[in-house]
Amino acid sequence: MNHLLPDRNGHFGLYGGKYVPETLMAPLEELENAYKKFLKDSHFKSILKQCMSDYIGRETPLYFAEHLTEALGGARVYLKREDLCHTGAHKINNALSQALLAKMMGKNRLIAETGAGQHGVATATAASYLGLDCEVYMGTEDMRRQSLNVFRMKLLGAKVTAVDNGSKTLKDAINEAIRDWVTNVEETYYVMGTVFGPHPYPVMVRNFQSVIGKEARKQILKKEGRLPDLLIACVGGGSNAMGLFYPFLKDESVKMVGVEAGGEGIGSGRHAARFAGGTVGILQGTKSYLLQDEDGQVLETHSVSAGLDYASVGPEHCYYKDKERIDYTYATNDDALDAFKILGRQEGIIPALESSHALAHAIRVAPDMDKDEIIIVNLSGRGDKDVNHVAHILGVTL
User: Fold this and answer.
1) How far, in whole angstroms, is CA 85 from its chain's centroid?
2) Closest Cα to residue 119, out of 140, 96, 144?
3) Does residue 115 have a pLDDT over 90?
4) Does residue 137 carry a pLDDT above 80?
5) What are the pLDDT digits (tens) for 284-334?
6) pLDDT confidence of 146, banded at 50, 70, 90?
7) Residues 82, 113, 135, 141: which is the catalytic one?
8) Does 345 score more than 70 pLDDT?
9) Cβ–Cβ under 8 Å, residues 17 and 11
10) Which of 68, 85, 164, 386 is most buried by its number of CB atoms within 10 A?
11) Is residue 380 among the annotated active site residues?
12) Active-site residue 29, yes or no?
């Protein structure tokens, strides 16, 4: 297993790469060169370090969920509290890092796509903080589910452009963002929200998000004197999961599980579990697992969580699945909704529906683990944005 991937062409084994129109090859090369340059630049690193601590609020706590642990009766459950980052999700780590890179490159306009809205809010926040223009593309179905985040983006000064075609979710928003980038590439920087897309986005986003795992590794050694037995994170595009997992990949004793959106069940066809029901193909500039029919047409997806409702997954996840270094499973809508309620009642923490999928797996496996074993769940975001949506599902009028 090669821990130095991707290769110079952006491949993680069979996956990844750069499958884009000719017009995007030059801007991607410009981005890769800038990323390599500023990653070594002491001025860039100094500003980013200050932003991480003073603006985002890092480091985030590693919280021992004592009441949940007692209720489950098995392994000790810790939560990595990315929900406590400024704007309420891990997305700000990557968005602010890329926005700072854009400013260093002389770009004055950011564009982004968003599903659950958290990446859009994070990008709008970073643009406001750094004095850049911002436009966010979002599917109309996601806008309906995440109306609070749409309003937050507008309050932050961003233009939110509705995408009303296809499944009206994240895949369609990415298509529109790429079209914008092709047209306005001179002054515009495309802030990709996850470990997806053409090279160098997957490796760049992974590295910006790996702060999560670096902190968690140091914190658990301080609290427990040893490494955890199991890491769990939800996987849409997969940035929070790769951010947590990456610094532990060489620790063979640490198991890792990524949890996809099982929607209404794999058999129903209404889900977003790419590893459970997908095949290898090319989408939006990269080779990865995706949900497609026999003719290669991308299938519509479904999840109660807008942030996991996506037809494909980051290519690095596919590599580690093939190598059996990371296991992947799924949680259904009902599993996630149960976990959403359980954490609120046990710990006074309302998790994002995305994170609830990871919690659902922890709730499933912890009771069968020994009491001295340790689980870390990445709580990738807070659930404020989902309260109206959950109330609607449960038939509660607010």
Assistant:
1) 14
2) 96
3) no
4) yes
5) 999 999 999 988 899 988 999 988 988 999 999 999 999 999 999 999 999
6) confident
7) 113
8) yes
9) yes
10) 386
11) yes
12) no
Handedness of CA 194, 233, 64, 391 (dihedral sign): positive
The two three-digit tokens of residue 354, written as one number: 């995305």
Distance CA 152, CA 123 (A): 11
Which of 18, 32, 82, 91 is an active site residue? 91
Q: Which tokens is 140 given?
A: 């109309």
The CA-based dihedral angle spanning residues 243, 72, 369, 371, taken in that order and rounded to the nearest 10 degrees: 100
Give every CB contact of residue 372 below 8 A, 6+ residues apart in sequence: 76
Which of 82, 321, 380, 385 is labelled catalytic?
A: 380
Backbone angles phi and psi of 330, in degrees to 5:
-145, 160
Residue 1 has pLDDT above 80, yes or no: no
Q: What's the whole-number mean pLDDT along residues 231-253?
A: 97
Compute the average pLDDT of residues 30-44. 96
- What pLDDT, on a 0 to 100 scale, did the predictor assign at position 289? 97
| Annotation marks residue 167 as catalytic | no
